[in-house]
Design brief:
36% of the residues lie in helices and 13% in strands. By secondary structure, it is of the alpha/beta class. It has one domain: NADP-dependent oxidoreductase domain (TIM Barrel), CATH 3.20.20.100. α1 packs across α2 and α4 (133-145) runs parallel beside α5 (159-168). The chain is globular, with a radius of gyration of 19 Å.
Length: 329
């Protein structure tokens, strides 16, 4: 597995593993998940040289961190653990709260669930408009001084917030959605990250599974699957967005690889500061995704993809309105 740097210091595998799909049930389910297979998937990822493992307090809630904590027992020296705070309030209810007191509570609770002494990368999951980012980042910096976290991250922050945060404390990574069907960060956010030497971690790099080519209709999704509520999976948007997949499939066939590998390789070609975290809950999909690090796309391939999936042309918003109000603040 090749490596890259997030920020100036944090070295991680060029592809990380998004652990969110491993949640069984809960609010963010991607269909059925099996704890034993999830555990085996994490162990296989470590064998393949994957070091960056991404989770969050709200996944489950809590159960995803607990699962990851059990899986990395005895393997702590081989992994970089990233988790997130800010979606759960002190009373356990869902909602934004990035006050210093709550982020400290979240940090200490995550350390216990993960059964580790220090979180490698601690993200603010969403910007809290009621708390100045300088106040939140300042409190995160104090946790660094106390040895409870190593590096700071933000998620779905806007360019002005990124600049203010970086002026308060070094930020190692920004995590936001980025893929062939979500390129909006290219206009302002990615340049701002590069100005401040902040690595970029794309989540949903496969369009929540859409870009793998394995989903041909909404009927392929099980009842309760989170994606049935995704606007880009709506009937009126599905066929239009499938046109992107058709192009990706064609390039994949020419290279003798999977569509998922092409979609991930495209992201890796966008810069050495980009570390996608495809989600997997099974070893077979993990192994397929991780092979993308060895896929070399030609200039013609990249031009064909850009023409098929230009910035801003995907059909439908990536979230419904309430969630859209929580991004790029």
């Amino acid at each position: 597995m090749k490596t890259r740097k997030l920020g100036s210091e944090l070295t991680v595998s060029a592809l990380g593993l998004g652990c969110m799909p491993m949640v069984q049930g809960g609010r963010l389910s991607y269909g059925a998940a099996d704890d034993d297979e999830s555990n085996a998937t994490i162990h296989r990822a470590i064998e393949l040289g994957v070091t960056l493992f991404d989770t969050a307090e709200v996944y489950g809630p809590h159960s995803n961190e607990e699962l990851l904590g059990r899986a990395i027992a005895g393997r702590r020296d081989k992994v970089v653990i990233a988790t997130k705070f800010g979606f759960i309030k002190p009373d356990g209810s869902l909602g934004l709260d990035s006050t210093p007191a709550n982020l400290r509570r979240a940090c200490e609770d995550s350390l216990k669930r993960l059964d580790i002494d220090e979180i490698d990368l601690f993200y603010q999951h969403r910007v809290d408009p009621n708390v100045p980012i300088e106040e939140t980042v300042g409190a995160m910096g104090r946790l660094v001084e106390e040895g409870k976290i190593r590096y700071l991250g933000l998620s779905e922050a806007g360019p002005e917030t990124i600049a203010k945060a970086a002026a308060t404390h070094p930020i190692a990574a920004l995590q936001s959605e980025y893929s062939l069907w979500e390129r909006e960060i290219e206009s302002e956010i990615l340049p701002m990250c590069r100005e401040h030497d902040i690595g970029f971690v794309p989540y949903s790099p496969l369009g929540r599974g859409f870009l793998t080519g394995q989903i041909t209709s909404r009927d392929d999704l099980a009842e309760g699957d989170y994606r049935l509520n995704d606007p880009r999976y709506d009937e009126e948007n599905f066929a239009k967005n499938m046109e992107i997949v058709d192009v990706v499939k064609g390039i994949a066939e020419a290279h003798g690889v999977s569509p998922a590998q092409i979609a991930l390789a495209w992201l890796l070609h966008q810069g050495d500061d980009i570390v996608p975290i495809p989600g997997s809950k099974r070893r077979v999909t993990l192994e397929d995704s991780m092979a993308a690090v060895d896929v070399a796309l030609s200039e013609d391939d990249l031009a064909t993809i850009d023409k098929a999936a230009p910035l801003g042309e995907t059909s439908g918003p990536r979230y419904h309105e309430p969630m859209m109000k929580m991004v790029r603040i």
